[in-house]
């Protein structure tokens, strides 16, 4: 008797592989997207804490400025106050407030991740304003400012992957950050 596999056995195994792949691939892609997005949120939280340390070490205000480029992607850079009146957009443009690092884009480091918000996303803070089309909720200037005494401005930075949604909250009195994940199944934010 010859050893080998029959055509029926081969078709059965091929069908089993296709079925298992159809189940596993979407879950794997969702997990990969979630991993990238939470990594980007933690990266931003770390950048904010680094700016806080710079402000304390330099005994001067330090700001993280967020700007939207023509392609719709957001960039951020860290600036130090050059004339002791706070970090201001006009003084950044004129060179009074100097950059401490070149601008970065999340999407350059974290594939398919950028600042953004899902449609109809509720606010991360109770009683706050939903992000709508503005994922940078730091006030009109879009600058998170840190002072020499360790305080900061207050706000939220919404970070979105292809499926995942996170927010980095910044608390002014302590300048601490909190990363939260939006759970679509419950419609609520969950702290990490």
Overview of the molecule:
With 192 residues, this protein is of the alpha+beta class. It has a single domain (32-191), classed as 3-Layer(bab) Sandwich (minor pseudopilin epsh fold). 32% of the residues lie in helices and 27% in strands. It has 3 helices and 11 strands; from the N terminus they run αββαββαβββββββ. Strands 5, 6, 8, 9, 10 and 11 form a 6-stranded antiparallel beta sheet that branches. Strands 1, 2, 3, 4 and 7 form a 5-stranded antiparallel beta sheet that branches. A hairpin with a 4-residue loop joins strand 9 and strand 10 (176-183). The longest helix has 52 residues, at 7-58. The protein is elongated.
**Sheet bearing the most strands, described?**
6 strands, antiparallel
Q: Give, in order, the helices and strands.
A: HEEHEEHEEEEEEE
Shape: elongated
- Could you tell me how far the N terminus lies from the C terminus, measured between alpha carbons in angstroms? 61 Å
Low-confidence stretches: none
CATH topology description: minor pseudopilin epsh fold
CATH superfamily: minor pseudopilin epsh domain
The helix fraction, in percent, is 25-40%
Q: What structural class do the secondary elements suggest? A: alpha+beta
Number of domains: 1
């Amino acid at each position: 008797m010859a050893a080998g596999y029959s055509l029926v056995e081969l078709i059965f195994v091929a069908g089993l592989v296709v079925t298992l792949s159809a189940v596993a691939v979407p879950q794997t892609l969702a997990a990969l997207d979630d991993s990238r997005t939470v990594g980007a949120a933690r990266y931003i939280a770390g950048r904010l804490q680094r700016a806080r340390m710079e402000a304390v070490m330099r005994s001067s205000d330090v700001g993280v400025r967020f700007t939207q480029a023509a392609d719709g992607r957001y960039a951020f850079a860290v600036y130090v106050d050059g004339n002791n009146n706070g970090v201001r957009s006009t003084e950044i443009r004129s060179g009074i407030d100097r950059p401490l690092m070149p601008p970065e884009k999340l999407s350059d480091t974290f594939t398919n991740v950028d600042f953004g918000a899902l449609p109809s996303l509720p606010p991360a803070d109770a009683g706050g304003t939903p992000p709508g089309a503005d994922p940078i909720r730091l006030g009109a200037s879009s600058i998170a400012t840190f002072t020499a005494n360790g305080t900061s401005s207050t706000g939220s930075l919404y970070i979105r992957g292809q499926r995942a949604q996170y927010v980095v909250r910044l608390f002014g009195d302590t300048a601490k950050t909190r990363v939260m994940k939006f759970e679509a199944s419950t419609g609520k934010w969950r702290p990490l």
